[in-house]
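Revision sheet: structure tokens.
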Amino acid sequence: MKVTGRIVLLASAVLMLLVLSSIVLLTTPSDILEAIRSEEFRYAILLSLATSTASTILALCTALPLAYIIAGEKRSSLLAEAILSLPMAMPPVALGVTLLAFFTRNVLGVTIDKLVGVVFSIPGLVVAQYFVILPLIIKGLRSAIEAIPEEYIGIARTLGYGPIETLVYIVVPLAWRGILASTVLGFARAMGEFGASVMLAGATRLKTETIPIAIYLAMEGGDLGLAAAMTIVSLVVAFVVMIGVEVVGKWRY
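Predicted:
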């Protein structure tokens, strides 16, 4: 049974690798190298890293207290959790349309847009990524927090710890592996976000051009070298993230 399982696992991994590595057949190595040296390539990577980092930090700061509340209020938080999870179940393009409507039609959204400049701008990328990854991070953090024995929380309360102290001094140290894994997955999802971003921030070269948007623009313009180079970068990032999550999950101390 073990041998059969290993064969099936290896065959599945090889098939997946065969499919994903086919991107190198899209164009020639020289075209890919030329694309890597281009300003557009560097801009898209740096912008993706910057916006993904910003949106992940914002989402983590929001998700941590929310996940803590949800984990402690399992029944009463059911409706609120379902609402917070809606962006995860929506098509990213549909989420982008709702965000665009909020920032162009809703009084509060219009006010924020006038102050920050969200629509068709770099802040719009951060906002779109934030709403996409927030439910994902909340789910991961909730699972990590719920894995903490309840008696630990009870002991903290008997010692006079309030909710904030319990979160900072008890929950975070005990759930750090889950927090780190959820954060890394959220960052990776932000790096790959396209649908909501293109609807809210637009797809303008050397302005709102993240890696996914650069791939879209390159394919639309027939620049297969740039599209292949960007896709390879995305694959490398995804691979590193998945390895990192697996390593973190196996840490014991």
